[in-house]
Amino acid sequence: MSVQNVSFPSNGGQAHGYLQLPDSGTGPGVIVIQEWWGLTDHIADITRRLAAEGFVALAPDLYGGSTTHDAAEAQQLMTELPADRAAKDLSGAVDYLLAHDAVTSTTVGVIGFCMGGGFVLQLAADRSEQISAAVPFYGFPQDPADVAPRIRGAVQGHYATKDRIPLDAVRDLFGQLKNSELHVYDAGHAFLNDENLIGTYDPGAAKLAWSRAVTFLNKHLAR
Q1: Cα 144 to Cα 42: distance, rounded to the nearest angstrom
Q2: pLDDT of residue 1 exceeding 60
Q3: Residue-wise DSSP of 87-145
Q4: Is the pLDDT of residue 162 over 80?
Q5: Is the Cβ–Cβ distance between 67 and 40 less than 8 Å?
Q6: Which of 124, 125, 161, 219 has the highest CB neighbour number within 10 Å of its CB?
């Protein structure tokens, strides 16, 4: 399977991203939100893996083509991307998928990692009617008190014990969600990323978390 480069209207302009269709040609829609490194080969691989599971996967490019392997540059790129603007950009991806002929679901799912995990929860709040399944990996929203009451879809979280994100804050957030499950792994940040630049990839945790995520998306996205 090859990833397609696509463009779609978003936030008053044109957004770009990677789109991957399953071999069947149709399936439920899932948005994939990048880590702070940008739209890397790892994120492209996530879209392929989701397509292999039968989903139509779209990964929007939030950095306009920029990627990096330098943490300081990644921090700068993320800082220059305000959460509200990113959510508006991502909203166009929701509309694009729901209008796509290959998408069989009436709602979409969203999965994201690190920075993208926080945007998952923001988008699930902003487009609560259209997102029925949200899967954040080791990410936290800028304003949890704002997003928690507005999320209507189901949420499955994947977090790590050896991470900078305080688990007490994560548990408090998930305790406020109406339909959620929280999984915590004895691992480090970015444990799912097999191209991990910080050396914390954990094959066992990654395999278990991926299996849980796919099962969750299948459950909450009608085919």
Answers
A1: 27
A2: no
A3: HHHHHHHHHHHHH-TTEEEEEEEEEEETHHHHHHHHHHHHTTTTEEEEEEES---S-HH
A4: yes
A5: yes
A6: 124
Residue, of 4 and 154, whose pLDDT is higher: 154
- Alpha-helical runs (H) found in the chain: 41-52, 71-79, 83-99, 115-126, 144-147, 167-176, 203-220
Level-2 CATH architecture, domain 4-220: 3-Layer(aba) Sandwich (3.40)
Which band of pLDDT confidence, cut at 50, 70 and 90, is reported for residue 197? Answer: confident
Of 139, 115, 93, give the one whose Cα is nearest residue 35. Answer: 115
Structure token pair of residue 107: 């709602």
Residue 17: strand pairing partners: 6, 60
CA distance 139 to 153: 17
Stretch 78-96: mean pLDDT: 84
The domains of the chain are located at 4-220
pTM exceeding the 0.90 threshold for the entire prediction:
yes
What's the sign of the alpha-carbon dihedral 88, 94, 99, 101?
positive
How far is Cα 54 from Cα 134, in angstroms, rounded to an integer? 17
